[in-house]
Each structure stands twice: as structure tokens, then as C-alpha cells.
Amino acid sequence: MEERRTADGGSIGVRIDITDLKRREASFRLLFEENPLPMWVVDAATRQLLAANAAMCRHYGYRREDLLLMCEPQLECEGSDRTAEFELHRTACGDAIQVVIESRPLHYEGRAAQVCVAFDVTERNRAQERISYLASHDVLTELPNRTALDQHLSAAVERAEVTDSGFALLCIDLDHFKEINDLFGHAVGDAVLRETSRRLQEAAQGCYVARVGGDEFIGITDQVPLSANAELLATKMRAAFEDPIEVEGHSLKLDLCVGAALFPRDADKIASLLANADAALYRAKHEGRGAIRVFTSAMDQQLRERRALEHDLRFAVERRELYLDYQPQQHRDGRIIGYEALVRWRHPDRGIVSPGEFIPVAERSGSIAQIDDWVLVEACREAASWDRPFRIAVNVSAAQFRRENLDAQVRMALRETGLEPSRLELEITEGVLIEDVSRAKKAMQSLKSLGILIALDDFGTGYSSLSYVEAFPLDRIKIDRSFVASLGQSERSLAIVRAIIGLAHGLGVPVLAEGIETRVQMSLLIEEGCDEMQGYLIGRPQRDAAVGSRSKPRVPSLIHSAS
After folding, report:
1. What is the pLDDT of residues 517-546, one digit of tens each?
2. CA distance 433 to 455
3. Angle at the Cα of 364 (from 363 to 369), degrees rounded to 5?
4. Backbone angles phi, psi at 84, to 5 degrees
């Protein structure tokens, strides 16, 4: 377009370069029609569709002539919120899809219009929804998990304090479940747990029920009087197991032990309330199958034993009672690529104390810091002595990650042992990262500047948010063993594992699956594209410090048989 002027500068009109306009219009139409994303043009005033590209016809299932008879709101599902992060549209066959719409103003055939492009985020959102659901639910029973319980308890305490009321917390344990699991196998054990969960929920009649461990459940009721209703709820739950559980031709008779504590009568802090309910459960289990006990001040023996354990734990490092086992990690092609360091405690009187017992005690008492420092240095020292440059993975406790000098501790361990930074991988759990995202980012950036690797441990058991996974500099995501355990038995578990692997690979992050015990599990993981494996099938944890010298994998690769 050219503006013509008089000799004195006055305008005498505008000459339009028709050729240029036609060229630009042709370019627009080419980009519009050939774009692989659904695109359309709408009248800015009436929202009538003026044009639609081939991708839109395919994606929405309409003929072009039908689309051009429609207004844009006719694409939307009823009640769709245009101010939301995404919009709900409906295809010709009635399927709802989630789309993000970007639009730009333009003049089209002489009228004010908008050109729109749709990004279909349906599958991405569904995958995220599955993982988000998993963050607050147990994969086997679909009951709320520990993360959900923590949130529920915090809300219950706030509500009780505001209303000057209270609630009862029940610790529920299945009697002799381990024997059933060992005798009949994990498949039967899992079926028992699913049926147990169903019966507990039915007996609870709306009261809150969560699964927090293998055969451990939590119930919460705020019906008054609290003590009497806690015992009544426990009795109803026990009564739900009068009939045996029938699984694969086996008639299995189970019973419950229940311990209860009242807020705020027995404790006004969540940790203390859980400890007191656990002490009541300990007393119930001690008294025999099917016992129900409410906490009393006399039930402090277990608490005294725990305090004794705390005392002994403070001196475990200097008395050289701690040691490390090393469990191999295998690439999907069969190569051993690293080992995870696992701390153990050999108590002079109690014998081997499991990490599940002493680590929570160490975290509560504060002695975890000394243990963390020892584990880090000892693992680096052992790895530095190996003949081959295998990776060494070290767990970072919540308390250790919160410390301001973690990067300094890691730097000192590397310098003291001579281990190459690229061989050290720190495993950090989801919950630790989400506590303070800004601080966690800075801490991880400081750690990454040392040249080490960082893995997200137990993925799926916490918040499982794709947004913060994207935000952190991760070198690996570890799928929690609870998902792997049901592979080959549960389509839901397979779908969850598939979603996690897909999301991780979409971010360019490799995935390691923990807890592999069967070839079926390994084959399925390889088929789904899992990069690395760890578990008893690969190798059990062992103390042998020469383990890193081994160059052959313990288990032959299944990559060929799985493909």
C-alpha cells in the first residue's frame, strides 16, 4: 500500500498494492489450511465460524460445510468455563475434549474476525489426573494414603480447635496377615487387603478410613461421646470380619487389633496423638487377637522403649554399630550401572534393627543428622574403592535436605573420599521438595553445581505434580515399589506405571523402577520403556564392599524376550 502526496506534502489518496495483498492472503490461507493443529476463523461480533482448516474437520469430526453453519459456542460443552485454564469442547460423536485456545484478531473478507488455534490437552490432563489421584490414594485398595491422612488430620485438628470439639483416631492392624501373605503368596495377600478395605469402609459408615502401611489402617470419628464411639466403631469393624474372606478357594479367617487415642484428651499434637494410638494398639496386640484398647496414661511402656531406642541411636555411629548394604541397579539391557546404599543398625542387645523402625526414631530425636553425614561419607568412600565407575545412590532424609549446608557436606564427602561427583546420585523424596519449592530449587541448583546427580525417589506416593517435576533439575525418577508389586495382576497399576514413564520421558528424564521381584514385572516394565530396574530379582542388598568390582549382571537381560 502506498500513500501519494502533493508537492507541498498534502495527501491526495492511497494506492493499494493488490499484488502484495493477494500474496499475503495466499500465504495466510496456505499456513491456515496446512497447519496440523485445528484452526478456525470466527466473526468477532457474532462468533459465527467463517473458515475451518482440514485439521479441525478431522479432530472434531465435522464436515467443513457443517462447521461453517455453526457458531463457536456450539463447539463448547454445556457449562464450559472460558476463563479456566482449558475449555471443554465436544466432538461430532459426542466425546468431550479439553482444549487450550489461542486467538488473534484479524480482518477476514472485510470484517473484524479472530483466528483461533486449538491445542488438545485431554490425554495430558488425564495422565496428570491419574497421577494426582494416586498422590492421595493407595494403589491397591484405593483408600486415602498417608499423604491424604496427614492433610485430613491437619484439617480435623483445625476444625476441633475452632469448634472446641475433638475426634478419635484409631490405629487398625490385621492379625497374622503376614502369615497369610507368606503362606498363600502376594496375589492372595493383595486380594485380602482389597476385601479388608471394602469391609472397613462399609463398617465405618462414612467415617474416615485410610491405609498407611502393609496391613495398617487408620480410622477417624468425631461422633460423641468420643471414647464410647471409638470403641463402637472398632467393634463394628471387627464384626465385619466374622465371615471369612474367600480368595482363590481359600477360606481365610481374619481379625483386627485396634488402638485408639482421643484429641485433645490424650494429645493435642498430631504426632503425639498417632504415637498414643499406636501405643494403645501395641497393648491390644500384646493382649491377643481381636483386642480393642483406648489409650490411657498407664500405656507408656512402649513410649519408654522408644525413648531407650532414641538414646542408643545417638551413640550408634561412634560405636560403629551402623553399616551399609548395597543393592544393584540394572539398565534395561542387563548391565549393572550402580548401587543404592542402604543403612543398617546392628544393636548390641536387640540385634538387627530395621531401618523402618530406627529411621523414624532418628528423625524425631534429631540424631538423623549424624547418621546422614556418616552414610554419605561411607557410601562415597566405598564407591571410590571399586574397580569400576558404578553410580552410588544415597538417600537424603527430609531433615538432611532442610539443612542449609547440605551442599557443603556433599562437597566435603567428595573431597575426603576422592569420588568423582558424576558417580554420586542423591535420592530425594517428593514431599521434601514441595514443602518449600523456592528453597528446594536453590538447594538443588547448589547441589547440581557440584556435578552430582539427583533422583526423585518414591515417585507417585506424594504429590506427584508434573509442574514441580518440570521445575527441578532431575536426572532420574524412581517409581515406587508399591506400583511395581501389582504389575501382572492389576491393569490399573500398569496404567499408572505407563503414565509415569510417559510423563518422565516427555520431560527427557529416565525412569528407574524399584521393588522388582518377578520376571513378569521386569518384562512389563521393559515393554513400557522403563530405563532401569532395582529389586530382589536383580540382587538383594549385601554388605560386601567388593560388590562394585562385579562386571556381570546377576539376572540375564529380558530386553529381547520382552520385545
Report:
1. 999 999 999 999 999 999 999 999 998 744
2. 12
3. 35
4. -75, 175
